[in-house]
Amino acid sequence: GLKEKIVSSAEEVLMLFAEAEKRRRVAHTRYNEVSSRSHTLLTLCVECSVPLEDAKDGEAQSVTRVGRLVIVDLAGNERLEAGAEYVAESSSINKSLFFL
């Protein structure tokens, strides 16, 4: 489910974040009430352009600044109850962590 969205306001970012949160898989474990059962990567890339006052030749010139923030939530692999579903899930989490 990798997606890239271009937004122009904080409200749009929050709306997309809430939409992604609905898809997040969590489960109750012995150690955490809400434990991530899937990996989440969120990269925010913010660009801001400012016009230069000393433009030469009458051309509009600007400086663009770029900032990047990466937030990572990796699924935990706590020792879960020994149900077959949990064993398969733990195996899947371990395999995906290996590739990350």
Describe the protein:
The strands form two sheets. The chain has a two-stranded antiparallel ribbon. Strands 3-4 form a two-stranded antiparallel sheet. The mean pLDDT is 77. 1% of the residues are buried. The longest helix is centred in the C-terminal third of the chain and has 16 residues, at 84-99. A hairpin with a 7-residue loop joins strand 1 and strand 2 (35-36). It contains two helices and four strands. The chain has helices at residues 10-23, 84-99, and strands at 26-27, 35-36, 40-51, 62-73. With 100 residues, it is of the alpha+beta class.
The helix tally amounts to 2
Shape: elongated
Structural class: alpha+beta
Q: End-to-end distance, in Å?
A: 15 Å
Number of strands: 4
Low-confidence stretches: none
Percent in strands:
25-35%
Order of helices and strands: HEEEEH
Average pLDDT works out at 77
Strand order of the largest sheet: 1-2
Largest sheet features: 2 strands, antiparallel
**DSSP helix fraction:** 25-40%
How large, in whole angstroms, is the Cα Rg? 21 Å
Topology (SSEs and partners):
Elements: H1 10-23, E1 26-27, E2 35-36, E3 40-51, E4 62-73, H2 84-99
Antiparallel strand pairs: 1-2, 3-4
Overview in brief:
The protein is of the alpha+beta class. It has helices at residues 10-23, 84-99, and strands spanning 26-27, 35-36, 40-51, 62-73.
